[in-house]
Amino acid sequence: MKQTLLMALLGGLSLTALSAAPGPQPTNQPALQSQHHPVQIQVDAQAQKGPLTPIWAWFGYDEPNYTTMKDGKKLLSDIAALSPVPVYVRVHNLMNTGDGTAALKWGSTNMYTEDKDGKPIYNWTIVDQIFDAYVERGMKPIAQIGFMPEALSAKPQPYQHSWAPGKPYQEIMTGWAYPPKDYDKWADLISAWVSHSVERYGRAEVESWYWELWNEPDGFYLIAPDVQKEFFKMYDYAYFAVKRALPTARMGGPHTARGGEFFRNFIEHCLRGTNHVTGKVGTPLDFIAFHAKGAPALVNGRVQMGMNTHFKNISDGFAAVAEHPELKNIPIIIGESDPEGCAACGMKTNPENAYRNGTLYASYTAASIARKYDLAEEFGVNLLGAVNWSFEFEDQPWFEGYRDLATNGVNKPVLNVFKMLGMMRGNRLAVSGDLAYNAQSIRASGVRGAKTDINALAAADKSSISVMVWNYHDDDVINEGAPVELKITGVAASSVRLSHYRIDQEHSNSYSAWKQMGSPQQPSASQIAKLHAASELAQLSPAQTLAVKGGVVTVNMQLPRQGISLIQLTELKR
Description:
574 residues; alpha/beta; 9-stranded mixed β-sheet; globular; glycosidase; Glycosyl_Hydrolase_39
């Protein structure tokens, strides 16, 4: 400690003590960076690049009825607590017919039925319980107009699917996935839902939501002879139904599975096509949305992530928007932005998804979210949010390998990445150094080279400077990693409070703790308490108050592969 303070007085800070905690034991793979020459990362606290828009504070899931269950409520509270801004939540199956029983890739609210004479019956009980859970926690719905109630479906039978992991994905396509047989009744239902929401939650609250139509109409989620034409018609009707009830509501789409021809044709329809309701030209868009996914695979028995595919999908969507001057500055929501495309496909049936429990998912999330800012900057678009399609699966085996943020109420390592992001404030800062990868190089060929991706996202406001540093590679290998020298310049303070948070094999990691217990499927109460404790975001060492000289703070650390550090300078005393 005396040595640390002495170096601070000499004009910098060398925090070798912060890396003294033991790291993961090396695998049979050599460390990819030299252990003798630290990776140099420089952050200029005076070089601000623009707001750190909380694009990460957006979450989604297929199964809406998990929202009001025991573990669902706990996770919602944890998600809401980690963000300084309202978290937006996007959920499928909100309009489906059924009794509200949860199932994988399914949900229902029984919002709409008809009497024996075909007269509509509206029932808001279950959807209110779901939205109440959000609003009570200060969260905001991305209210999805989907899917089709049984009484309105153009082909209602069979209606509810019985899909399970390992079955063909196409089996989910049943009566809920068809367009309406009566557009007027369907539009009246939409208007009634919006009006009811205003009555229940207040006009100002509902004005802060986003309304959207359907999900991935270019993929598996809409069945029609001409899917594209049908969806454009559905959007026109839905748009005017929402606006009829609340003219100031925000409505958009199309939430296509990717960019591509369908996405571009939808944009063209909204800008210059014939509106199916008015017969005039075009349909307004208050925001625009598409999805982007990666492509993990098993290579020689080991998981290899596909971040390059993820970034290519993002870039394709951004490019399609940027092609149209009329859409300059329109908010963009990446409605699902994930390492792959099926949250409910566990690692037993899909072994390429074995990344989900541990630190590979966490380091992928840190590295990919940071680069989304760079991709948006490259194309000159207004990225509002990127939805992490991951929640929880109630009453499933422990660490079953679903793409979720928690298992049986215990948070996974990946959730701590979002806690780190929630602690970052202000404007993004310029990051430089001997960095092996950027967004463009990853888009071209992934993180497949001899070096790992060691890089940082930095931000500052008047009272704090935060730097999140990660060590990521597409290949699922864990080793001791590499030494990193983080130099923060332009620190306009005479002293700072420095905190160092870490996610790795021994910190902020309930999965490692569970494995050390012997992977129990019926853990005791004391074991569950230990898992909860292990799941919390941990500091690598106690916080310190440090003198700053010359405006420079230097942090030296050993960053294990798949590790993430958050360096935070607070109490900036001038």
